[in-house]
Amino acid sequence: MANLKELRLRIATIKNTRKITAAMSQIASARLRRAQNALMAARPYGERMHEVMQSLVAGIDPAERKAAHPLLEERPVGRVLIIALTADRGLCGGFNSNINRTTARLLEAERKAGRKAVLMAVGRKAQAYFKHYGEDMSGRIHPAPEDKTVVELGKAIASSAMELFTTKDESRRVDRVVLLYNHFVSVLTQEPRELQLLPLSPGEGKGPSREPTFEPDRGSILEHLVPVAVESLIQQAMFNSVAAEIAARRVAMDSATDNASGLIADLTLEYNRERQAAITTELMEIIGGAEALKG
Amino acid sequence: MADRMKLDILTPRGAKREGIDVPGVELPGLLGELGVLPEHVPFVTAVKPGVVRFRQGNESVRLAVGAGFLEVTDAGRVVLLCERALEPGEIDKEAARARLSEVEAELRQYTGPISAATFRDLDQERTWLQAQLRCAD
Fold first, then answer.
1. What is the DSSP track for A171-208?
2. B contacts of A232 (beta carbons < 8 Å)
3. Cα A152 to Cα A174: distance, rounded to the nearest angstrom
4. Which CATH class is domain A2-23+252-294?
5. How far is Cα A26 from Cα A136, in angstroms, rounded to an integer?
6. By a Cβ cutoff of 8 Å, what residues of chain A touch chain B?
7. In chain A, what are the domain boundaries?
8. pLDDT tens for residues A193-235?
9. Which spans in A113-149 are helix H?
10. Dist CA A73 CA A59 (whole Å)
11. Structural domain boundaries of chain B?
């Protein structure tokens, strides 16, 4: 009979777990809609900002970019800053570990190539992971973004990255800044992506067919636009990351709920079989006893 | 000659106006107030925190906007990209006024270099708060 009791207990435990995962999946569904809306709302701004930046920067000869704005300067790379954008919480499938693994690979590749690499951790998960490996992140730790904090947090991270890129202090200065984040492709797919933030480059794609007039002039617009364009890149990545995190959590919790249901079905079957076996044995004993009395 | 143009006001938190028809728009350019009318040549300029005015339908609209850019595209579309924008109804005047006096007090006590980030942040916040108050009044 001990086995029966054990089975009953296990079924009860798994039912509890299923309640929790189902609730978490529902919470994620509700938050996902909000995060997706925020992502969609932010997209036009980010895209226009990128186009304006392209039209301004693409017209400048690469050799003259440094003079145009310090954040456009392409230097030989001696030190790289890698920003890993993760979440504060787990239970969202491969969301955090994908970024952590890609980041670790990139750190290793940069170091093998003889360059120095420093890490900035955004979100507790990256922080905990790399702390375990003894990575130095002092002064470069930020909380994970949420849909309400993206704008301000994006600014803060942009300003600390720009400071590291432009500082006069050779021992701290970085020559390249990359951001690793989860891109929200769809609810079912998140894709870890690598994005170069600094030096800011116009990227692929042609400039405008006709160059617009700049008022008062290209230089003073660049001075305002370049930092904002960097902020905007980070904010876009964060909006993606927030939506991707919630989507990943929903998918993970859905499959956990399905797994729990499967386990419960299996265990219930086993439980019923055990119970039937026990009843049969008891019956056999009774019949056997009755036969013996008759004899 | 067209007497209307399309106007977009976009922020990272979403579009405030998208593709509305306006006869013109006035906004705070870096070098002072400027107005844009339909069929303007394509140009890009920086915008500082202030009040944007335009007519939408029969109503005249005022919005407080943060720093950003104005772009007039080849197609004559006017796009205002700003880091934030508020309708007059969304502005909390009391809170803005209180915060403004705090920021001004901090700025008065400030003794560090003008180029420092803290000073720049405070200065930006001050202009943004002033823009909100001007828009709400």
1. TT--SEEEEEEEEE-SSS-EEEEEEEEES----SS---
2. 12
3. 23
4. mainly alpha
5. 38
6. 38, 41-42, 44-46, 48-49, 52, 55-56, 150-151, 154, 159, 163, 208-210, 212-216, 220-221, 224-225, 228, 232, 235
7. 2-23+252-294, 43-247
8. 999 998 888 776 555 556 778 877 888 888 888 889 999 999 9
9. 124-132
10. 15
11. 5-88, 92-136
pLDDT of residue A205: 59
Residue B89, both tokens: 């109804």
Question: What tokens does A139 get?
Answer: 């002064």
d(CA A16, CA A260): 9
What the block records as the tokens of B84 is: 């934030």
Taking the CA of residue A276 as centre, how many other CA atoms within 13 Å lie in the half-sphere pointing to its CB? 6
Residue A73: per-residue pLDDT: 87
Angle between helices A2-57 and A218-294 (to 10 degrees): 170
pLDDT in tens, A83-135: 999 999 989 989 999 999 999 999 999 999 999 999 999 999 999 999 999 88
Contact between residue A220 and residue B46 where contact means Cβ atoms under 8 Å apart: yes
Q: How is domain A43-247 classified at the architecture level of CATH?
A: 3-Layer(aba) Sandwich (3.40)
Confidence band, pLDDT 50/70/90 cuts, at residue B110: confident
User: DSSP strand E in chain A: where?
Assistant: 79-85, 116-122, 141-142, 176-184, 190-198, 213-215
Let me know: does A85 contact A121? Beta carbons within 8 Å. no
CATH number assigned to the domain with residue range B5-88, chosen from the 4 options 2.60.120.1440, 1.10.240.10, 2.60.15.10, 3.40.50.1000: 2.60.15.10
Q: Clarify whether A92 is annotated catalytic.
A: yes
Counting one residue from A and one from B, how many pairs have CB atoms under 8 Å apart? Answer: 86
Identify the residue whose tokens are 């976009």: B10
Does the pLDDT at position A292 exceed 80? Answer: yes
Structure token pair of residue A216: 């008062």
The ipTM assigned to this model is: 0.84
